[in-house]
What we know:
The protein has 225 residues and is mainly α. 59% of the residues lie in helices and 3% in strands. It contains ten helices and three strands, in the order ααβαααααββααα. A hairpin with a 2-residue loop joins strand 2 (157-159) and strand 3. Helix 3 runs parallel beside helix 9. The longest helix is centred in the first third of the chain and has 28 residues, at 2-29. The chain starts with a helix and ends in a 7-residue tail after the last helix.
Amino acid sequence: MIKKILRFLWKAALWFFGISIFMVILYKFVPVPFTPLMAIRAVEHKMDGKPMTCSHDWVPIEEISPNLQKAVIASEDANFLTHKGFDFEAIEKAMEDNEKGKKIKGGSTISQQTAKNVFLWQGRSYLRKGLEAYFTVLIELIWGKERIMEVYLNSIEMGDGVYGAQEASRVWYHKDAKKLTRMEAAGIAAILPNPRKFKASNSSAYINRRKARISRYIGYIELNY
């Protein structure tokens, strides 16, 4: 019985590694059509009696304003262009802040967020975090920074039922993503901590302060993928 269980676990592991590597290689070249979060949000809308909206329009990174690429780096992951998927200094600082009783923060990089959004479910379990680390290593090795940024900006939630830079640009500013100004890009980046609560346009004072800060940082970032 033990041998059968071990054999089953071994085969399951081989299948998992094979399928996961195949999917990462596939998404290096093929647009990601949907994510688990999109499905979860659609079900939540249905349960709340709302229309099952999911606005998502993939565009290549060449059609996404460099302002937005820089804005999410400034807002979400200042060391994105230099780290190897994990920002250990940010993780350590987040742990120190949390231990001091400050507002709970995470230390997730853009690479980790991309891995979670594309391949996994939401949650804080050790299993999910372990799988997130595994997929983060894979996409860093196979995709590279530019592709990670492209997938990230096309997949993340940027409003209630709004996913990706192109749809967010149309919803918030009525223009294509490639035409976003520095302040407009900063507006979208500013709401990412909670895009269903905050607004990128006609924003609250809190978001306006974040916009101004992110907009200033954009000028110091060079995109050297």
